[in-house]
Amino acid sequence: GENVEQHPSTLSVQEGDSAVIKCTYSDSASNYFPWYKQELGKRPQLIIDIRSNVGEKKDQRIAVTLNKTAKHFSLHITETQPEDSAVYFCAASKSGTASKLTFGTGTRLQVTL
Amino acid sequence: KAGVTQTPRYLIKTRGQQVTLSCSPISGHRSVSWYQQTPGQGLQFLFEYFSETQRNKGNFPGRFSGRQFSNSRSEMNVSTLELGDSALYLCASSTGAYTEAFFGQGTRLTVV
Predict the structure, then answer these.
(1) B51 interaction partners in chain A (CB closer than 8 Å)
(2) Which residues of A50-79 are buried (b: 16+ CB within 10 A; e: fewer)?
(3) What is the pLDDT of residue B1?
(4) A99: which chain B residues are within 8 Å (Cβ-Cβ)?
(5) Rounded to whole angstroms, what are the CA distances from B6 to A17, A31, A68, B61, B102?
(6) How far apart are CA A25 and CA B61, in angstroms?
């Protein structure tokens, strides 16, 4: 089955710096790649997603890039703020929908003042 | 628009018992997926129901089962509980087409 690896497991950056989280997937048939943010004690929330027919997508300070050949995708957060501190999960799906997601192991991002 | 609602929020059960968790999706969403979240294994897919039919299934034992009703509400049942079943159980709803999934707050199950 699909396997998603995520790195790093923890990331500490200073406020205003950029943060990058990387994921690789094993199944070349995967075609939908969402990123979720989960704050302590709260539900995962979608922050951005990308489909396999797109190489890059941006939403204000957040961007995601996808390299289908290498089977990896990355989350980029610029101008980090303390409220960006959370656990971030990448995920992949073969169905093109969000119905059956394989998640990475998560990255704990800490933004320090 | 109301979000995804899961009940109960917390449960404590004894080994060997069974438990039923409930998930009410966003109105109009026909797909409900269930995930188990643990510190060691992360988020793992259990199964997905779409229009009352199980459409996808993860790699969990048969003790884990679910169903979906005609109003799209879904229940998940775990029989013969084991200590290792202690986890946060999350459900997520979507239209089932090319749209995002919205998660509920989860049910934290503790097996003692």
Answers:
(1) none
(2) bebeeeeeeeeebbbbbeeeebbbbbbbee
(3) 66
(4) 31, 33, 48, 50, 55-56, 94, 96, 101
(5) 37, 29, 36, 22, 12
(6) 25
Query: Taking CB atoms and an 8 Å cutoff, what residues of chain A touch B33?
Result: 98-101
CB–CB of A90/A21 below 8 Å? yes
Rounded to the nearest 5°, which phi and psi values hold at B83? -55, -35
Distance CA A77, CA B109 (A): 34
What is the DSSP secondary-structure string of B33-53? EEEEEETTTEEEEEEEEETTE
Angle, CA A68 vertex, CA A52 and CA B49 arms, to 5°: 45
Decide: B23 and B31 in contact? Cβ < 8 Å: no
- When CB atoms are compared, the residue of A43, A91, A99 closest to B94 is A99
Instruction: Give the least confident one: A13-27, B5-19, B84-98.
Output: B84-98
Q: Is B11 helix (H, G, I), strand (E, B) or coil?
A: strand
Q: pLDDT band at A95, cuts 50/70/90? A: confident
Please give the average per-residue pLDDT across A101-113, as a whole number: 96
Residue recorded with tokens 């951005």 = A48
Q: In this structure, which amino acid lies at residue B70?
A: S
